[in-house]
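re: that chain from earlier
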Amino acid sequence: MDQVFANFLSAPDSLSGDAAALNPHGLNSSDSDLLDAYSRAVTAAVDRVSPSVVNVEVHQAAGKSRSGEPRERRGGGSGFVFTPDGLILTNSHVVHDATRIEVALSDGRRAPARTIGDDPATDLAVIQVDASGVQAVQLGDSKQLRPGQMAIAIGNPYGFQSTVTAGVISALGRSLRSYSGRLIEDVIQTDASLNPGNSGGPLVNSRGEVIGVNTATILPAQGLCFAIGINTAKFVASRLLRDGRIRRSWIGVSAQTVPIHRRVVRFYNLSDESGVVVLGVEESSPARKAGIREGDVIVALDDKSVAGVDDLHRLLTDAQVGTRCRVTVIRHTERLELTIVPAEAQ
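^ sequence. v structure.
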């Protein structure tokens, strides 16, 4: 079909009048070759990755019927095999709280799967399918991406298996709020169309390498779709395989982002004009033991600026669990340095 289209564009003599009307820009043979090259790049990438893309069908408990029978709610999304032994990357919101998971492979086989680990904070999950002879994708490097590069999304929107859309990488380094409320960092923005059911499917470059995990689209906007960078997915997957979850630290406060008076900012030479005001402190929490009070404004953790709640979440990683840290707070107009030992979040 592509060749017929190319021949049509490059034959102005035989179609001079109609071709001029249909092709006012006068595409020459090199233009049609370029279109063929683009088409070949997309088809080659799809041929390489499609055998690894799966449809994830999820059953979740939905209470009981009037007769007392248990009811199930059904949903699903996409995923892709990333190891030869059947490990699959998908979105957390696709498989979270699943009572039963079934995977439809590209060759038509259906097989049960189990959850290995689930991280709502990054909207990523690893499941494993009980099937032999599965083909794994090649993972790329999301740090090497540039805006304008080709991006190909493969998934199962609305149950239509192995649907392909193509576009470009629109922007890098975006932040997207996950279903747990935390920010997912270094998200890829693309205009490759995504629809319900695409969640968890691969975003692929022209070499057929997976560069992201498709996760969200903003409705009713057009061309605003997002994927979690594959480097983030590699890190999360490795931790889920090792521990079954992602360890994060916890200090036991409820808080919100607030502006700080400019006089206080200038007097203490603060890096930002906002901080995190403590609205509540849990009993027996690390924050309570450290002497943090309601009304304190947290402005730094281990000398790293805290301009808002998202900054605090970003700094409270597994490295801080059980480690003595310095937390800087503004109490009324006084600057205090307190010692806190974050615990592991449950």
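The mean pLDDT is 86.
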